[in-house]
UniProtKB/TrEMBL annotation:
UniProt keyword annotations, A-Z: Membrane, Transmembrane, Transmembrane helix
Name this polypeptide is given: Uncharacterized protein
Transmembrane segments: 69-97, 106-123, 129-150, 171-190, 196-211, 223-250
Keyword Transmembrane: yes
């Protein structure tokens, strides 16, 4: 543990610069440095982090991410009537489950809303959309893992909360761009119109990121509810709004502190 790790924990518990000033410190990081100096600790040599975590558990999770695509493609190829519904359930579960979002009395509302949004979209646009979303699960999983690993590396290398925020924002935007390109590619392969599939896939991807990194559910739920409005631009507006929220929430060090 280092001072920035302590600062992230303080931030996660609502300690602000104003609170730190009561203890004669200019900001939270200064307070964290004193706590670090007062606490017993051992030097730990850190290995260079991998871009995407490896190991049996990581490969198993990636295997799970491939299941929605396999299920949707197999059911669609067999001409099964339940192909769309099965893909919707698999996509919603894979993209937003499990989450550790903070706050709220109803922990699964965001997950249920995601399933409703996916089901409503597939009902309107057909099974090919479900296939396209299912195919986007695997690149979404890899992009989310790469973002988590990259954010952890930047957290370890930063020496102030603002420094980490400046490093985390470009990483998030780069991951979003990469995932958007991947979603457009798989949507084209599935024969789904890009203006329909890509904003929806991006909305689910941002939902997954926010829930996995402990963000509050209210903005996520509001964006998903907006996506249910039967207007073509609703999903795009929901994804854009959630991206703004993600840039703010995921650039906080507390979103990446070790549990």
């Amino acid at each position: 543990m280092d001072p920035l790790e302590i600062a992230a924990g303080l931030e996660a518990h609502g300690i602000t610069d104003r609170t730190a000033a009561r203890f004669r410190h200019r900001d939270v990081f200064s307070l964290a440095e004193e706590l670090y100096a007062r606490s017993p600790h051992e030097a730990v040599s850190a290995a260079a982090p991998a871009l995407v975590p490896a190991g049996p558990a990581a490969f198993r999770r990636f295997g799970y991410a491939l299941l929605p695509a396999a299920l949707a493609c197999a059911a669609a190829a067999a001409g099964q009537e339940w192909a769309g519904a099965a893909a919707v359930v698999a996509v919603a579960a894979a993209l937003v489950w499990p989450g550790r979002a903070a706050g709220g009395r109803f922990p699964y509302v965001a997950h249920l809303l995601a399933a409703v949004v996916a089901g409503w979209a597939v009902h309107r646009h057909g099974t090919t959309l479900a296939v396209g979303l299912a195919l986007a699960v695997a690149p979404g999983h890899l992009a989310a893992a790469a973002f988590a690993a990259g954010a952890r590396a930047r957290l370890d290398a930063s020496r102030a909360l603002e420094d980490f925020a400046d490093r985390a924002r470009p990483l998030l935007l780069a991951v979003v761009v990469v995932f958007t390109a991947a979603a457009a590619t798989v949507a084209a392969l599935a024969g789904t119109p890009l203006p329909v599939a890509v904003p929806l896939a991006l909305l689910f991807f941002l939902t997954r990121l926010l829930l996995r990194h402990g963000a509050h559910r209210a903005p996520v739920g509001a964006a998903l509810a907006l996506a249910l409005v039967p207007v073509p631009a609703a999903v795009l507006a929901a994804a854009a709004g959630l991206l703004v929220h993600a840039v703010l929430a995921l650039s906080r060090a507390s979103a990446h502190a070790r549990p």
